[in-house]
Amino acid sequence: MALSVGTTAPDFELFDQDKNKLTLSSYRGKKVVLVFFPAAFTGVCKAEVCSFQSAIQRLNGMNAQVVAISRDQPFANKAFAVANGLEFPIGSDYLLNTITAYDVLFENFAGLPGYTSSSRATFVIDSTGKIAHVHVTENPGVEPNYDEIYAAVEATA
Q1: Which tens digits make up the pLDDT trace of 65-105?
Q2: Which overall architecture, per CATH, does domain 13-155 show?
Q3: Of the listed 45, 55, 125, 136, which one is catalytic?
Q4: Is 45 a catalytic residue?
Q5: Domain extents for the chain?
Q6: Contacts 24+ apart (CB under 8 A), 73-79
């Protein structure tokens, strides 16, 4: 079960797609839309990140920063970001530490025994670091309800 609303979001330190340090705490004072996706270059993951990219100005206008996290290496995340014109960081959680901390592990991803990735999950984190909204899909082949997420961002301080 993923973390719940009202709890403090765990900080993390990952490498982004440009191999720069990426931390949640560096966005304190802003809302964060934290997007976990299972794998770069898969159809649903592409649709999801492109949906957030399409809404980037709307989200930025609400003082929100999109941060994505996947298990993929920084090199794959870089190619994925470039291929899709993404203007937000993608953290590489190849050790699964952050995915574990947020309790969104997805075991045997894509029917591959022993391959662990992340569930498709979105956390809206308020400007003080508290979780304001959680959405975890049961089926990683299903996109989240974007309108619900955007409404949660708008309603969050």
Answers
A1: 999 999 999 999 999 999 999 999 999 999 999 999 999 99
A2: 3-Layer(aba) Sandwich (3.40)
A3: 45
A4: yes
A5: 13-155
A6: 74/15, 74/16, 74/17, 74/18, 74/19, 76/40, 76/41, 77/16, 77/17, 77/40, 78/17, 78/18, 79/40, 79/41
